[in-house]
Specification:
Elements: E1 10-16, H1 30-33, H2 37-48, E2 52-58, H3 62-72, E3 76-79, H4 91-100, H5 110-117, H6 119-128, E4 136-139, E5 155-159, E6 173-174, H7 177-191, E7 195-199, E8 204-212, E9 217-218, E10 222-226, H8 239-243, H9 245-251, E11 253-257, H10 263-279, E12 284-292, E13 298-305, H11 314-321, H12 326-338
């Protein structure tokens, strides 16, 4: 048993079926391993901590989960699913099912998933709390597109509910009514979701990771660097930039500690992140995304409940900078999961 583990737990790892690592995962070429990277890292850490790991692949049948609960009798479910039945926002229903079955789980609660996933709803709530957000409008599928009153170009068009940079490309930043209509239609047709249109803030992109339910720990602020973009390119983390490692190297995309952040600015970002986390009813762990304008003012972009937990992802890197090893991070998330069920 790993040092520091008092008693091994029966941990049921929930993962989307296509992301469950095959037995020969370690022998695959790096590009093929990418699909299973997070799941393999988390499972490896749990095993190294001395826990008994049972993987449950989920697709579109809750009966699979029910049978697994009956057979495994888990102490806690480690939730790594990103969608259910091919729909991102259905992950909240799987977590609700775990609560109904009285199974503790890692990560965010159902209400926090609802509020955090909806980029417009989260901004409305935070506007009420006087937290800066970009001005925005929403175009539902089938709705006629024209620039919302009060918004100024350039605008950025995103899916209302998808994450992981889905649908984000240079063409997402638009400068005219014609391009706005084209990109909204692209989101409707290709992602099958409503579209949110925000005023584009040309500035630094930063991330703050948090851990906890009530007592929150904010991790050091991390920043997205784009060193080799051509001058006219918008400074955004496109889908290709997020997942294509060769593209990242060619264009200088990298993530690291925010430059020039002293203790006072870190404290301000931590306080702001905690306010947002609580206002959106998040729990377990999350990553909050911000843009800093030319004057250094932080604008909330979106919340990422249950963000990527790969050992080299933003959350793990920031935790490491705060003195937590990857195994310690996974152990902390697991401990929080054991305390997840409503009182």
């Amino acid at each position: 048993m790993a040092r520091g583990v008092k008693q091994p737990l029966r941990v049921m790892v929930l993962a989307n079926a296509e992301c469950v690592p095959p037995e020969d995962h370690d022998e695959l070429p790096p590009k093929q391993r990418e699909q299973y990277r997070t799941e393999a890292d988390v499972m490896g850490a749990l095993q190294a901590l001395g826990h008994h790991v049972y993987v449950v692949p989920l697709d579109d049948e809750l009966s699979v989960l029910r049978r697994a609960i009956e057979v495994v009798k888990p102490d806690v479910a480690f939730n790594l699913i990103e969608e259910f039945h091919g729909t991102a926002i259905y992950d909240q229903n799987v977590v609700s099912y775990l609560e109904l079955m009285k199974v503790p789980y890692t990560g965010c609660n159902p209400r926090g998933l609802v509020l955090g996933r909806d980029k417009a709803l989260s901004k409305k709530i935070l506007s009420y709390h006087r937290i800066r957000v970009p001005r925005f409008g929403v175009f539902r599928t089938g709705q006629t597109v024209s620039k919302p009153r009060g918004l100024a170009f350039p605008l950025i068009v995103k899916s209302l509910t998808e994450d992981a940079s889905a649908g984000i490309a240079e063409a997402s930043v638009v400068q005219s009514e014609e391009k706005l209509a084209e990109r909204v239609e692209f989101v409707h047709q290709n992602l099958g979701t409503h579209a949110i249109v925000e005023e584009y803030i040309d500035g630094r992109e930063t991330y703050v990771g948090l851990l906890g339910h009530h007592r929150l720990r904010a991790l050091p602020t991390w920043e997205l660097f784009m060193d080799n973009l051509r001058p006219a390119a918008p400074r955004i983390f496109t889908l290709r930039a997020k997942w294509d490692t060769q593209f990242q190297r060619e264009h200088g995309f990298r993530i690291g500690p925010a430059i020039g952040f002293g203790p006072e600015q870190e404290q301000r970002m931590g306080r702001l992140a905690r306010r947002i986390y609580r206002a959106l009813n998040l729990s377990g762990y999350a990553r909050l995304d911000f843009r800093l304008d030319a004057s250094g003012q932080a604008y909330f972009l979106e919340a990422n409940p249950n963000p990527d937990l790969a050992s080299d992802a933003e959350l793990a890197q920031a935790a490491n900078a705060a003195g937590m090893s990857y195994q310690q991070l996974i152990a902390q998330i697991l401990m929080l999961g054991q305390r997840s069920l409503p009182a």
